[in-house]
Each structure stands twice: as C-alpha cells, then as structure tokens.
Amino acid sequence: MHYDVGFRAADELVHTHVGTGVPALDRLLEGGYECGLMHLFYGQPSFHEVLLRAAVWAQVPKKRGGFESSVIIIDSSNMMDTLKLADYASEYDMNIEEVMENIFISRAFNSSQTYDLLINRLDEFLERVPAKMLLVPGLPDLFTSEGLDANRTQQVTHIAARLMVKTLEYELITLVSTKSPQPPRGFPPVGRALASNAQVHILVEQTPMRTVYTLTKHPSLQVRSEYQIRHNSRFGVTLPLDLFFKDDPST
C-alpha cells in the first residue's frame, strides 16, 4: 500500500474534518477532528465519554458528518462501557449491533503490552481493519504508574513518534488521553515527547453545571474554550448569568 506523504505547499493542503458527536467540541475545533492529527485529551476524566462518543460517531454516514469507518481502540485505561456505547448508538440513530461489530478493541494490562501493541502490531491492525480512527485512552498512564525510569521514558518517546508518523501515513484521526493529575502550570502531564507529537491538546474541566473544553494547542487555531451544559446538574444549583446571554450580559 502506498501513501503519498510528500511535500505540499500550504495552499495545496486539504484539511478534512469529521464531527465529534459533541457540539461544543465541533465548535471548538471548527468542524471536528482533523484527519492526520493526533488529539490529546487531559484534565478531568469525563473525556472518556468524549472518546466513547467518537467511537460511535465515526460510524455515522458521511452525509450526517461522520466517517462511515471502523474504529481501533488500544485501551490502557479500561474505559470501555458497552452500556454507554449502546446509549450513544441509540442517540445517533445507529444500529447497536453494527456499531459494536465495527469497534475493534485490544486491551493492554501493563506498559510492556502497550508498547508491543503500538510498536509491533499497529501496522497489522491498520492493514486488517479499514479504520480511519484510532483511540489510545490512557496511553502514558501505565508507564507512569509502573515508574517512569529511563527505559519506560524511552518507550513513551518511541510510541509518541510512531503514532504521529502512522497518523499522517494512514490519514487517521488519533485520539489519545491521560487520566494523570494535571500539574499546576496546566501543561499535559504526559512528558515532552507525547506533548510535542500530539498536534492538538484539549483540556477538559467540569463544574457542577457544565463541562468546559479548552483548546490549549493547535497548528492553526487559537487558544479558546467552549462548554456544554451537563444534563445531570443537581437540583437547586444556581446557573451563572452568562449562560443566558450569547455575547454581552448587558443586552
């Protein structure tokens, strides 16, 4: 299989976007996830719901903003929730059985398995499964929990570089996440290699009433935030005034 990854002038590049299934993220990214880019989610673990929605929305017909694509998941965080997948499939008017059949999952239980799956077996997965979306939830977390010595740090660096290359080569949408605590300065807690190779960073924060998505890194978009109201807000919580105004609260 041949992939054209040669030089292109900026005005010749075609940026293909696919909807996220989350309106706030579609607004934040001006259309959705971009093919050929690694997207890194960090912050509060509600991003797991975003990744599960992405696994379903990728299968939505193209005329509705989806990909009509299978999805590969290399899961290091045990995030899979079949009940939520079924709920999202129903929400998007998709056949639940067909959605499940088009999600291909490989579970990693330690850092060695994560490394083997992404370095030695990723090409095999991508050749066998015609997927255009790759999810790697919790990628650095097992390495961190086992102790980031020199060998594991080198492995994370190797994985990050390979993921960026394969994302471009296969024109994938790659979504990576970490549940490691966010450091005080606000940078992704994933090390320099992964932070550098992921071209898009999205910080996820929650309040009792809304989920806030902040774009902290992107090759062409500015830093900014969007939010969506949480449907399970507690009774009796007062909504801030700015929620009722689109622009100027004085109007």
Tell me about this structure.
Helix 2 crosses helix 3, helix 5 packs parallel to helix 8 and helix 8 packs parallel to helix 9. The termini are far apart. The protein has one domain: P-loop containing nucleotide triphosphate hydrolases (Rossmann fold, 3-Layer(aba) Sandwich). It is an alpha/beta fold. 33% of the residues lie in helices and 22% in strands. The protein contains nine helices and ten strands.
Outline of this structure?
Helix content is 33%, strand content 22%. It has 251 residues and is an alpha/beta fold.
Molecular shape: globular
Count every beta strand, where a strand is a DSSP E run of 2 or more residues: 10
Strand order of the largest sheet: 5-4-6-7-3-8-9-10
Task: Work out the helicity level.
Answer: 25-40%
Percent of residues in β-strands:
15-25%
CATH class: Alpha Beta
The CATH architecture comes to 3-Layer(aba) Sandwich
Overall radius of gyration? 18 Å
The succession of helices and strands, N to C, reads EHEEHEHHEHHEHHEHEEE
* CATH homologous superfamily placement: P-loop containing nucleotide triphosphate hydrolases
Question: Which oligomeric state applies?
Answer: single chain
Mean pLDDT: 85
Sheet having the most strands: 8 strands, mixed
At the third CATH level, what is the topology name?
Rossmann fold
By secondary-structure content and strand pairing, the structural class works out as alpha/beta
Count of the separate structural domains: 1
Unreliable spans:
1-5, 7-13, 233-237
